[in-house]
Amino acid sequence: MTSDIAQLEVHRPALTGHCYRMLGSVVDADDAAQETMIRAWKSFEQFDGRAALRTWLYRIATNVCLDELASRNRRERPMGEGSATSGSPSIESLIQRPREHWIEPIADAHAIPTDADPSERAILRQSIRLAFVAALQNLAPKQRAVLLLMEVLGWSAVEVAETLDTSVAGVNSALQRARATLAQRHDSDPASLSASQEQMLRRYVDAFERYDIDQLATLLREDATLSMPPYTLWIQGPQEIRTWMLGLGCGCRGSRLIPTAASGWPAFGQYRPSLEGGHKPWALIVLELDGDQIMGMNSFLDTETLFPQFDLPMELPV
């Protein structure tokens, strides 16, 4: 029994990544991967070896996710909820949604298998990026499954049809509809950072920790966005972002940033100064890049849920 469990556990990161693409939530992805493991262990004796073990597990995971999607609404990003906020809003005007409403980031290390070759890692990293996962939420669940199994994992229409208990013609039709919905929405930025991007990120960290907002604004694309789930508010443009950070956002002055990687992008655990000394968690910042500019600053404020997922400490001492 121990050896069976070990065989299954090797595939957990791949399954977690697949469930994350389907569900848009790191918490839900962990739960779905665990449910996949339980179902697989219970029916392991039925695995006949005609397909690879990982393929068999992906089939179980896909159906676990389809069961989950049948009973809940799709997740969103703030940018999909309404117009950007202009000026400096009052704190009373800020609206929050529950955690289950928003797309969450996932740690690269939890979603990408260590045994993947470089080309596979590049595809998997691009397919967990926030914009792509958000676009997937616009697809019907079975269309989502078809697209991911064929476009990300490289399955044949026959394999997908068997997994979803449908016809090859139905699979091809679903793929066409999914492609049409996602046309021009897939993030095609390179999966690895260039030397100039690495340099830009160092400038970003330096500007943020010094709270030099004028310098930080020079790193932003003209249409860059700032969002802060669980708030519905989002802001667009360097000047508007500057106004926010020097207004209601000024409590971030004195923050420290700890680097990590989330949803295929560079990310940082942000810690704000604590009255008791040291620094307390405030946000997981996920940056979306376009060349050498920042096109998205996404501050996820649910640190109690997210920081343990990224092995980030819950306190920075003095």
Give a written overview of the molecule:
The protein has 318 residues and is α+β, with helices and mostly antiparallel strands. It folds into two domains: 152 residues, Butyryl-CoA Dehydrogenase, subunit A, domain 3; 115 residues, Nuclear Transport Factor 2, Chain: A, CATH 3.10.450. The protein is 46% helix and 15% strand. The protein has a six-stranded mixed β-sheet with strand order 2-1-6-5-4-3, with helices on both faces. A hairpin with a 6-residue loop joins β1 and β2. α3 packs across α4. The termini are far apart. 38% of the residues are buried.
Topology (SSEs and partners):
Layout: H1 2-9, H2 12-23, H3 26-42, H4 53-69, H5 108-111, H6 118-126, H7 130-136, H8 141-152, H9 157-164, H10 168-181, H11 195-210, H12 213-217, E1 220-227, E2 234-236, H13 238-246, E3 256-262, E4 265-273, E5 279-290, E6 293-300, H14 303-309
Parallel strand pairs: 1-6
Antiparallel strand pairs: 1-2, 3-4, 4-5, 5-6
Helix pairs in contact: 2-3, 2-4, 3-4, 8-10, 9-10
Strand order of the largest sheet: 2-1-6-5-4-3
CATH topology-level name of the largest domain: Butyryl-CoA Dehydrogenase, subunit A, domain 3
Radius of gyration: 21 Å
Structural class: alpha+beta
Q: Which superfamily, in CATH terms, is the homologous superfamily of the largest domain?
A: PhyR, sigma-like (SL) domain
Give the helix tally.
14
| Amount of helix | 40-55%
**Element string (H = helix, E = strand):** HHHHHHHHHHHHEEHEEEEH
Oligomer: single chain
Number of domains: 2
Number of strands: 6
Query: Strand count, sense and closure of the main sheet?
Result: 6 strands, mixed
What proportion of the residues form beta strands (DSSP E)? 5-15%
Ends distance: 47 Å
